[in-house]
């Protein structure tokens, strides 16, 4: 029987074949653990990125506000508005429960810092990933529905709005996620 603890202590007493098997086993375990750690970190990063994309900074989405914003900036016709409102309402209905659970999962993951349990953290991260995927899909579906109702000029305007939102979110995140973080050098 191979004893991994004796190999690490440098006191392995066995045939060269057994020693080779033990080294292969130890190397494989180390490789598997490293790969699992890197994969877990990548999945968590992706989950948080998707979750952040599907929710605006500073709070819960407001479908009415979203429709008013689109109506004001894109000069939607009555027909377009009639098609956009249900898409936004469907988005809200499809994501309402998931957003609350997503918040709970983030808090639970944060709370694992003191007494980390890899199994529990993995379970939380897996659920977080599933929810983030659903949120991202629902957001993409709603945006595609809205985009399909727009004319060429409105599509260009929507692209510009989304680009500005992306820039605003990036700036918001650089400031530590605080909506009103002090700006360096500003007189407050």
Verbal overview:
78% of the residues lie in helices and 0% in strands. With 188 residues, the chain is mainly alpha-helical. Helix 2 (16-54) crosses helix 5 (118-149) and helix 3 (63-74) packs across helix 4 (78-111). The longest helix has 39 residues, at 16-54. The radius of gyration is 25 Å and the shape is elongated. It starts with a helix and ends in a 14-residue tail after the last helix.
Helix and strand layout, with pairings?
Blueprint (H helix, E strand, L loop, with lengths): L3 H6 L6 H39 L8 H12 L3 H34 L6 H32 L2 H23 L14
Characteristic terms for this protein:
188 residues; mainly alpha; 6 helices; disordered C terminus
């Amino acid at each position: 029987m191979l004893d991994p603890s004796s190999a690490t202590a440098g006191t392995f007493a066995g045939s060269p074949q057994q020693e080779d098997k033990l080294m292969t086993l130890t190397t494989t375990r180390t490789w598997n653990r490293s790969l699992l750690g890197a994969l877990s970190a990548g999945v968590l990063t992706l989950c948080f990125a998707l979750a952040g994309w599907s929710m605006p900074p500073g709070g819960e989405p407001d479908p009415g506000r979203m429709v008013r914003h689109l109506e004001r900036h894109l000069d939607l016709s009555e027909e377009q508005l009639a098609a956009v409102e249900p898409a936004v309402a469907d988005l809200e209905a499809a994501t309402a429960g998931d957003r609350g659970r997503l918040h709970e999962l983030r808090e639970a993951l944060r709370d694992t810092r003191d007494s980390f349990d890899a199994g529990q953290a993995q379970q939380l991260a897996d659920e977080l990933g599933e929810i983030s995927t659903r949120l991202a899909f629902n957001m993409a579906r709603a945006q595609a529905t809205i985009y399909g109702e727009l004319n060429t000029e409105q599509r260009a305007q929507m692209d510009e709005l989304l680009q500005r939102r992306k820039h605003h979110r990036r700036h918001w995140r650089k400031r530590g996620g605080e909506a009103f973080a002090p700006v360096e050098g500003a007189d407050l």
